[in-house]
Amino acid sequence: MKPVAGRLILLSVTIVVSLVLFLPSTPLFSSMPEWWKQNLPSKGMTLGLDLQGGIHLVLEVEAERAIEIKMDRDVSNMTELFAEKKLKIESVKRTGPTEITVNLGEPGEKEAVLTLIDDQFPTLGGRSPSDRVLLLTLKADDAERIKKAAVGQALETVRNRIDQFGVAEPLIQQQGLRQIVVQLPGVKDPGRAKALIKNTALLEFKMLDEDHKVARELPSQVPAGKEGDILKEFGPQIPPDDEILFERSVDKETGRVTKTPYLIRKRVVLTGDVLTDARVSIGEFQNAYVSINFDNTGGKLFERITAENVKKRMAIILDDTVYSAPVIQERISGGRAQITGSFSMEEANDLAIVLRAGALPAPVKIIQDLTVGPSLGRDSIEKGIRSTMIAGAMVILFMVVYYRMAGAIADFALMLNLVCLVGALAGLNATLTLPGIAGIILTIGMGVDSNVLIFERIREELRTGKPVRPAVDAGYDKAFLTIVDSHVTTLITGFALFLFGTGPIKGFAVTLCLGITINLFTALVGTKVIFDLLNRRGRMERLSI
Known about the structure:
This protein is an alpha+beta fold.
């Protein structure tokens, strides 16, 4: 009886633990006392996108833009470096996606410029079509590295943003060379989530060109949607190094949206990659703004820029939209600044999220957009539960009819299998999807396979005239290796599906692997305990099988 007692205790503990783990996944958990919620598991299974609704997006990273952004930054850094070294340079411009043209003021500066470029810009290769012109081209290996890094960085940036957005059990993974799959179950505002993901969040600080006549002729405000008319009217007059960008304003009383045009220098004086933090704050007039902190390098640059441009206006630009264009009243030290604008608390919070999570290294475009409604998810759950009950009922009925009392014992093992499986899924905080439900239904069918093998072996032993207890023991012993072999081979298949499959296939693989492992326990331990209890002290002379 000692082995039976030990296995019986193990079986009882397994059932209790499974029920406790599964309880948070049921409506009953809300009525449990506080001490239970605080001291016992409080997080169970979550429903996947196909069961509770949400959005499914496939994003494509425009990796070529990452190269262009890198080349533009090289142009800016190169211009500052040449000025610092007091080299006579007429202009530095990006003349192609991977090409920079340097026009020399004097031919004698060529060697010094090439030496400086080789030292400070190792990713660029140079050639000289004439004495006064240098053509610098991004090396092919570095271009491929930048593209790959852009996709990887975009993946991490999207993941960081979604984590701060607060979506439970999101799926974010790379697909192919440049695509990112995003699944957000249970999202109530798909539009806001898409905007948060897609927003490039390229924060730039640029100076306004207030001395040019176009800046004085621009209207103070234009209705939203009329930006194209302004660009068409003033476009031919804009200097090559300037551009017109707009600030969005919303009238809080009428809700009317207007745009304020600014003539802004294209040269970036500071970028958002030197940010360390971004937080939402409330002003004295209860208006929301974003407070940003720079790192040491950014703080020093910001202090120098503000000191050199006192009484001038600096535009704070996010994704080519001006958020504010304040006048620099004095040198700003301490590495802090503010982004103000006529946005709501929610808009300010989203802006802070994308700034904290970092800028996307390149724009992304949504190439597939699928929204799953919660009603479809409820219908899937109902059909999944119904199919599980029907499959279970048919298996239970067949086992009782064909194997009689032994079949009833197998049905007990089947119920034990389901209890342990849902408990294990809840304990792992797994996400239940339609393929996962299919895996549970498959587990129901496989749950009796082992018992069928055992029962047929027991029948063979009983036909030879053996008593019930030796026949049962022999049946389990002879079927053991066959059962283990079949389960291990299926388990290997499940592991392969998990390692190499995508989201839905992984959900199926998790359910399948757990079901197989638990089935081994219920078949070899659960049913054997019942037979041993019935056979103790030789009380069982006949077995209904």
